[in-house]
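Dear Dr. L.,

I hope this message finds you well. Following up on our conversation about the binding site, I have prepared a predicted three-dimensional model of the protein together with calcium ion. For your records, I am including the exact sequence and ligand specification that went into the calculation, followed by the structure tokens. Please feel free to forward this to your student if that is useful.
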Amino acid sequence: MGNYHILVVEDENDVNHLLASILEPYAVTSAYSGTEARLLLSQNDYDLILLDLMLPGMTGEELIAWMRTEGKTMPVIVLSAKQELTDRVNVLRLGADDYIMKPFEIDEVIARVEAVLRRCKGQQLNVKTESEGGEKSLVIGDLVLNHDQRTVHVKNKPVTLTVREFEILELLMTYPKKVFTRENLFTAIWGEDYFGEDNTVNVHISNLRAKLAKAAPGAEYIKTVWGIGFKMNL
Ligand code: CA
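The resulting structure of the complex is given below.
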């Protein structure tokens, strides 16, 4: 367990020290503000982040948003006294992996940390980036996407995708643990502001799913996360 390095971001000294002490089997670094955490994250790699939301300098929500735009995909467990469902849904939408309510039980924190680390370790094994002749492929199970050749294969069968469908699949496969909202996808792929009513993303996702399902009947590659969005089915 000592191989894992956890960053604890919490501005209350006592709580920070308590978390660091209960996570002693791991290597732990403490940060006391959002800006300190951002600095540490830009310099080091961590396996997991335990993150308070109400922080001086930069809020937890802002830190998650910054991490995801920087392509930092390590798991984040939010620890917060914010009780509202909308706050919880909001941080999960931003890309947090779990949410623990304050005041917390020590055993619960340990159990969730273990569960998230286990899950993410498994996923790292599922997704590999293969290099053949200098070309990069994303591989998840029997789904293979080659960026340079712009090809997708399912069970060794070629699947012909439109440019947008390819871009959506590549984004999902690049961050397989992340749940993308319709807004995330629209903004990333179309590069335009998103208007909630728009059905564009749904239509592209369902076309993409239909093409993958035609090549591999019964297999589900893209999962709907109810009320939030889409992610790869790992
Ligand atoms: Ca706080």
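In brief: The two ends are 24 Å apart (CA to CA).

With kind regards,
A. P.
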